[in-house]
Amino acid sequence: MAVRKTISLFIILGIVFGMARVDASDVRPPKPGNLSHFFTGNPVRPVELQPLGGPGILLMGGGSEVDSAFIELARPIVNGGDVVVLRTGNSSGYQSYLNTALRPNSVETLVVNTRAKAETEYVEWVVSGANLIWIAGGDQSEYINLWSGTALARAIERAYARGAVVGGTSAGAQVLGEFIYHPGNQTAVISAEAIANPYRNSMIIADRFVDLPLMHNTLVDVHFWQRRRMGRQLAMMARLRQDERTSEIIGIALDERAALFIDSDGVGHVRRSGQNMAFVFRESRLNTIRERVEPGQSLIYRDVFITPLVHNDTFDFRDFSSSQLTNLVSVNGADLPDSAYDPNP
Questions:
Q1: CB 333 within 8 A of CB 300
Q2: Mean pLDDT estimate for the chain
Q3: Looking at per-residue confidence, does 184 or 2 come out higher?
Q4: Chain centroid to CA 23: how far?
Q5: CB neighbours of residue 4 within 10 Å
Q6: CB–CB of 177/211 below 8 Å?
Q7: What is the pLDDT of residues 23-67, one digit of tens each?
Q8: What does 139-187 look like in DSSP terms, one character per residue?
Q9: Does the residue 35 lie in any domain?
Q10: pTM to 2 decimals?
Q11: What's the Cα-to-Cα distance from 139 to each of 26, 95, 232, 319, rounded to whole Å?
Q12: Tens digit of each residue's pLDDT (9 = 90 or more) over 164-183
């Protein structure tokens, strides 16, 4: 009888207080004193506001943000839930912008600039429960060194599994590919150098730091046309295939102010500002020839598929169909003047 009375009391209390859930996972843990953050909105996480129709991947090529990609493509999935921005620099630049564009319950920027901070319960809780995770521009090597294998990386994967949007701009987009250009402390390679020797010391390609199924077999590059990175992208693709690190490689290249949103069905949707573009590269099993991919030798890589994409175009990563025509591109380092792929002044 005592047990029945206790159960009845809990039922009554639940009705009185609207059956509110207060699980341990819903309670914000204490923030470490040395963790810088910026916060806008409601600190209480509404557990009923889960992502709708996700997961999704949102990649931007740097420069100013593409408003329509956030508003038209990401916001419906965010569904008014929490948004988190990850960075290593002490800046609050996204707080107001994302609060306006996404209309979330909250926007929180976490300045995660040590591995110890990436392992904290607070960072793990904030990230795993977010409906959109946005990685700011910066240094992809720093992100890999500080975040790989930490609670932060695992929290991103759990949020993705819940249906969240995971995205980033510039270096924040690069680190979402399965393969990541990772120069470390070396000066970033330019196209002419990559073509002259695809195995030069600064051509370091890391494996993924987060496992996002929509990004399997991908390599992302950014600031693409502005910094003339066609040669670099092709050299990295050739290396990955020549070294048998993958049986298939898909290159995603984004100009500044161009965005690619990959929905839960694996269909990419392009949004852009101005005349900037997105590009998808892939090998043809019948036509592509890795004629010369050797240390100390200039690259000869023939007949790689390239699909240029403009505003509102689509690319289906499941069967490689697109709203745009696919062409072929080749590079012959033996005949190519260095200036052809040098970055703009």
A1: yes
A2: 90
A3: 184
A4: 30
A5: 8
A6: no
A7: 336 789 999 999 999 999 999 999 899 999 999 999 999 999 999
A8: -HHHHHHHHTTSHHHHHHHHHHHHT-EEEEETHHHHTTSSEEE--TTSP
A9: no
A10: 0.90
A11: 32, 20, 18, 33
A12: 999 999 999 999 999 999 99
CATH number of the domain encompassing residue 237: 3.40.50.880
Q: Is residue 176 within 8 Å of 220, Cβ to Cβ? A: yes
Residue 89 to residue 102: CA distance in whole angstroms: 23
Least confident of 115-124, 264-273, 328-337: 328-337
Sheet-wide strand order for 37-41: 37-41, 106-111, 82-87, 132-135, 165-169, 56-60, 258-262, 267-272, 314-316
Number of domains in the chain: 1
**Paired residues of 270 in beta bridges:** 260
Structural domain contains residue 81: yes
Question: Per DSSP, what are the bridge partners of residue 304?
Answer: 283, 329
| Mean pLDDT, range 62-83, rounded to an integer | 97
Cα angle for residues 306, 310, 316 (degrees, 5° grid): 60
15 in a structural domain: no
- Contacts of residue 37, defined as CB under 8 A and 6 or more positions apart, other chains included, come to 31, 108, 109, 110, 111
d(Cα 236, Cα 202) in Å, to the nearest integer? 11
Residue 217, by phi and psi: left (phi above 0), alpha (psi -120 to 50) or beta? left
- Domain membership of residue 25 (yes or no) is no
pLDDT at residue 106, as a whole number: 98
Can you give the residue range of the structural domain that contains 123? Answer: 47-341
How many residues are recorded in the chain? Answer: 345
